[in-house]
């Protein structure tokens, strides 16, 4: 099979499935895994796919970056609430916490309103909810208002968080693989990378559907995250793969740890 034909078959498979492993692709086109990896590098350099650990992701599977907040709030609600409840257990009195914009961060607010904490956020909806609780010191970072996510981003937001330090931050993502964390907005990626840099404990909150998903902008190295908080539906093999690089927890693991 000539090289161009291999490329066509590789792209067709990756675009059809969203993700394909090196092993499966090498069998499909009849070459060694070493050759296949070189093919993937060439295709990535042409911006035709995205190499990830163990395979490749389709660039056609990006999330719609114009998806509005109401639509995101309505997706996988039970999973987001499960993750949010678990994330809230990491927040203690006197903490200085950054909550990023997003549905899962919003659901965290249901569990922290009795705590004596400082919350910094770029989310207007989180500001609206937590403004009712006098025990929570609330700081809005300001910036350019992004209507589709009801959040603040841009140079002013980046400047404000650059001068802040947080005990903990909780950031939702559009995708995460073994190498990088992704979002759909370049401006949001710049802001959240600064937040993560300035946080002692860096939490990524992501349901199992976000794993091995690539989006427009990679903004942080997965290995530099403190902990990923996810749901119980994540594949066990995938869980072990990520656990080799960083802490990853779900409700099942948390309950097992507590009971032991």
From TrEMBL:
Pfam families: DeoRC, HTH_DeoR. Keywords: DNA-binding, Transcription, Transcription regulation. Residues 3-58 form the HTH deoR-type domain. Coiled coil: none annotated. It comes from the Bacteria. One of its GO terms (molecular function) is DNA binding. This is HTH deoR-type domain-containing protein.
């Amino acid at each position: 099979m000539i090289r161009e034909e291999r490329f066509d078959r590789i792209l067709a498979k990756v675009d059809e499935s969203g993700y394909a492993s090196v092993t499966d692709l090498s069998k499909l086109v009849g070459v060694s895994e070493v050759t296949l990896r070189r093919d993937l590098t060439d295709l990535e350099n042409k911006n035709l796919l995205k190499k990830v650990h163990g395979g490749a992701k389709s660039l056609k599977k990006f999330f719609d970056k114009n998806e509005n907040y109401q639509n995101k709030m309505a997706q996988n609600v039970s999973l987001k609430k499960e993750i949010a409840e678990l994330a809230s257990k990491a927040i203690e009195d006197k903490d200085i916490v950054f909550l990023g914009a997003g549905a899962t961060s919003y659901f965290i607010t249901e569990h922290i309103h009795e705590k004596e904490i400082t919350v910094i956020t770029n989310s207007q909806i989180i500001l609206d909810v937590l403004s009712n609780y006098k025990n929570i010191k609330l700081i809005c970072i300001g910036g350019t208002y992004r209507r589709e996510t009801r959040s603040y981003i841009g140079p002013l937001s980046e400047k404000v968080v650059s001068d802040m330090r947080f005990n903990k931050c909780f950031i939702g993502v559009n995708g995460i693989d073994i190498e990088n964390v992704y979002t759909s907005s370049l401006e949001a990626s710049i802001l959240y990378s600064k937040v993560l840099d300035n946080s002692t404990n860096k939490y990524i909150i992501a349901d199992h559907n976000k794993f091995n998903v690539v989006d427009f902008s990679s903004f942080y190295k997965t290995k530099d995250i403190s902990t990923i908080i996810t749901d119980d539906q994540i594949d066990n093999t995938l869980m072990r793969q990520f656990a080799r690089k960083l802490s990853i927890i779900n409700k099942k693991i948390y309950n097992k740890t507590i009971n032991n």
